[in-house]
Amino acid sequence: MTMTPETILTPEAARAYELDRRHVFHSWSAQAALTPTVITAAEGCYVWDGAGNRLLDFSSMLVNTNIGHQHPKVIAAIAEQAAKLCTVAPQFANDARSEAARLIAERTPGDLDTIFFTNGGADAVEHAIRMARLHTGRYKVLSRYRSYHGGTETAVNVTGDPRRWPNDHGNTGTVHFFGPFLYRSEFDAETEAQETDRALAHLARTIEMEGPSTIAAIVLESVPGTAGIMVPTTEYLAGVRELCDTHGIVFIADEVMAGFGRTGKWFAIENFGVIPDLITFAKGVNSGYVPLGGVAISAAIAATFADRVYPGGLTYSGHPLAAAAAVATINAMTEERIVENAAEIGERVLGPGLRELAQRHPSIGEVRGLGVFWAVELVRDRATREPLAPYGGTSPAMNELVAACRARGLLPFVNFNRLHVVPPCVITEAEAKEGLAILDRALIVADAHTTS
Ligand code: PMP
């Protein structure tokens, strides 16, 4: 690691770094070239690195800490639960798990009132697909290109981005289709209405050609997250619902990233008034303080397993520490109107602020999002829309942009050619504006790589 004034670590941080490099194997990475930032502390919307620098967390630690870092009520609930009861096997009942399920069921749309708990997002997707297959007696699963559903076997196979490629053994029952994405339309559409119509026609045709009676589920992110925050139209999601109803296909809405306040609603799909059959969740359910995920199940699918054994389970399903953290998180988000805050900051500060940056920075091709869930699509050339980094890759321009943000005190979340603006849902107007001001200066670095 190059030692600059920003990276002169405290002795504790230096030890964490050295041990990490010696013993820790990191996700989605070639290990040799890694130089992970040491994070030593956090509070609200800020984290501190191993050199003592304070960074405004515009990443929410993988779009996760919706309630912000170190919320005192959640910390207290975990400590209280730890003192009372740390572990309970899944076949028993437990007050923390029961209450967490009740609070989640109360917030899900429709009759998705039964909750199966998992340890995170990927296993939630795995189980949702298994439930759909058993419920329908069919095997195929349709999912979008430009999507992410997790790193485990089935979840990575339904994923529609390059992370699937090295993990794909083929013959998995997965069929990918194109969803609506007007900025990079696969359908030569010029308006949202055209894009919606043509994307739905393409999905209908895919179903027809694959054989409707072979398709168990369509799984899609209500608002795709790491793939680029392409907010769909209400008509698109309503159209998917209709196709599912027509053909007896289970509609799985993956809300692992978009759920629990991120879009300014408890669940992103509420923005569109559509009710899926299964919702997968994780991350925001307890802001990642203790690993937790799950599937919210419709009454009809839950009924399938009333007299028939559900063949699946996890030792830590509804772990008391994770469940207690979920109860405290959901209660605090409700009492402190944190979901409403996400909606308001998005509408009043982040959306207008980012659009204003787009007017002045030629590297910004498009700004998309809602709530505290925004993507800034960076391009080399606005006319051709050539991305500033290749699909599935990175580029010196994007690396320089990240470094420029970091040098000015902002922790960004970057994916391929996109800067994702995904701060905690508790972000204040002043913090949002602080972040936008840093982006304004950092984007000059990206502008220098444009050719238009
Ligand atoms: N689905 C979506 C939409 C996600 O964004 C993610 C994680 N980024 C996952 C599933 C997988 O979740 P996890 O990493 O907790 O397994």
TrEMBL record:
PROSITE patterns assigned to the protein according to its UniProt record, in alphabetical order: AA_TRANSFER_CLASS_3
SUPFAM superfamilies in the cross-refs: PLP-dependent transferases
Any Gene Ontology CC annotation: cytosol
An annotated Gene Ontology molecular function: transaminase activity
Keyword entries, A-Z: Aminotransferase, Pyridoxal phosphate, Transferase
Family: Belongs to the class-III pyridoxal-phosphate-dependent aminotransferase family.
Protein name from the UniProt record: Aspartate aminotransferase family protein
